[in-house]
Amino acid sequence: CGYATYTPQADGSVRVQNCCERLPNTTVKCSIGKAVVSYPDVFPLEGRFNVTFGGPPKNSNYWILDTDYDNYALIYYCKNLSESKSAEAAWVLSKQRTIHPSVQATVDGL
C-alpha cells in the first residue's frame, strides 16, 4: 500500500514524501522529492508541476487533471524515455485509504 505526504516549503515548493509498505514483513520504503509549479506566472494556475526525486525534470511531468479539493485528485504523469518511448501513469490521490463509491464513479467517468 502506498501513501504520500505533501508539505509546503517557505520557498514556494512542496516537499513530496512517497512511501510504500513492502510485503511480506511490511517494511516501509520512502522517497523524498520536490515539486514546483511549472508555470507560476500563468493565471489561473494550471495544476502542472515539475516533480523530481534527485534531478531536475525537463518539463511539466505531473498534471492535476481533476480534483474536488476534498475527496480526490486525479494526477497524470508522462516522461519521455527516448524519441520513440515514453512512460505514462495516473493516480487517484485521496486523504482516505478508500474512496466513496460516488467519488469512484466520478473518477471512472473522467
UniProtKB/TrEMBL annotation:
Gene3D superfamilies: 2.40.128.20. It comes from the Eukaryota. GO terms for biological process: response to stress. Pfam families: Lipocalin (PF00061). Residues 47-103 form the Lipocalin/cytosolic fatty-acid binding domain. This is APOD. It comes from Anopheles gambiae (African malaria mosquito). The lineage of its organism: Eukaryota, Metazoa, Ecdysozoa, Arthropoda, Hexapoda. The gene is APOD.
